[in-house]
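quick q for whoever's on today - can somebody do inverse folding on this one?? i tried earlier but teh output was garbage lol. tokens:
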């Protein structure tokens, strides 16, 4: 059974950091485009970052310079390092894996989500 499992969410103060992890099982991540999406309270799911299958990355403007995506193919894991977190980063964060060259909303696999809350 192919699946993604996220972890690393939690409560953090503004300006703090968190690192999210996304572990894949049942398939090899290195041939997929891996994305992080988030869904803030009362809002639609939005793309945060895409690590495309060609090795390029694309960041949402509001997180560029604060968030960094990385891959460890040996562990079949993708990480999202989030620094200088802001209250508006509060959301459920989802990992996705897409066979195409982009991170689409119709990605092939999705994790269950992990809650990130930024509050003092």
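ok took a stab at it. sequence:
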């Amino acid at each position: 059974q192919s699946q993604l499992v996220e972890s690393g969410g939690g409560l953090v103060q503004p300006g703090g950091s968190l690192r999210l992890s996304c572990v894949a099982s049942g398939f090899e991540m290195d041939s997929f485009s891996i994305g992080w999406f988030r869904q803030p309270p009362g809002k639609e799911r939005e793309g945060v970052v895409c690590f495309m299958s060609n090795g390029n990355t694309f960041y949402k403007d509001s997180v560029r310079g604060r968030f960094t995506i990385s891959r460890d193919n040996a562990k079949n894991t993708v990480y999202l390092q989030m620094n200088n977190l802001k209250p508006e980063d509060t959301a459920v964060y989802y990992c996705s894996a897409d066979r195409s060259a982009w991170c689409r909303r119709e990605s092939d696999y999705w994790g269950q989500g992990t809650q990130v809350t930024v509050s003092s």
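fwiw DSSP finds no helices and eleven strands in the chain. also The radius of gyration is 13 Å. so keep that in mind when u check it
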